[in-house]
Amino acid sequence: MALQPFDSVTRGAIVQLKKLKPKLEAASPEARIEFVSTVFEFDLYHEIISHQLIERYGLSGRDYYDCFEMNDGEFVVHGLMAKAISNPVMEANIRATGERVWDNWMATYHEHKPQGALFE
C-alpha cells in the first residue's frame, strides 16, 4: 500500500511525533502521553502501527507500543483518556482501533488516577 501524501496539519503532527520519539524512554510519562495523544488526535494509528511511517519519517509501531510498556502504561492510558474524553475526534479514532478499546481504557482511566500536577 502506497503512503498517501499528508496535508500540512498532519505533517506537522508527524514532525511533533518525531520530536517526541527520543523522549519516549524518559522516566516521566509526559512524552509518551503526548505521543499517543497526537497519534489519535491526527488519526495516525493505522499508519504508525503498520510501519507506513518508518521509511520516510522514522516512526513505527514499536514507538507507539513502547509508550505503554515502560511500567507505567496505566498512567499513559489515563493521560490519553483525560484528553480524549473532551475530544470527539480522539474518541472516534480510539474507538476505531477495536470494539472494546475505549471501554477498557475508560476502566483504566477510572481505576488508575495517578497523583501529581500532570494528572490534576
What would you note in describing this structure?
It is a single chain. This protein has about 120 residues and is mainly α. It has one domain (about 10-110). It contains eight helices and no strands.
List the helices and strands and how they pair.
Blueprint: H1 8-20, H2 30-41, H3 45-49, H4 54-57, H5 61-66, H6 73-84, H7 88-95, H8 101-111
List keywords for this structure.
mainly alpha, 120 residues, globular
Q: Determine the number of helices (DSSP H or I, runs of at least 4 residues).
A: 8
Shape: globular
Helix content: 55-70%
Mean pLDDT figure: 91
Radius of gyration: 14 Å
The H/E string reads HHHHHHHH
Structural class: mainly alpha
Q: How many strand elements? A: 0
Distance between the termini: 42 Å
Q: Give the number of domains.
A: 1
Largest sheet: none
The protein's oligomeric status is single chain
Low-confidence stretches: none
Query: Which strand-content bin applies to the residues?
Result: under 5%
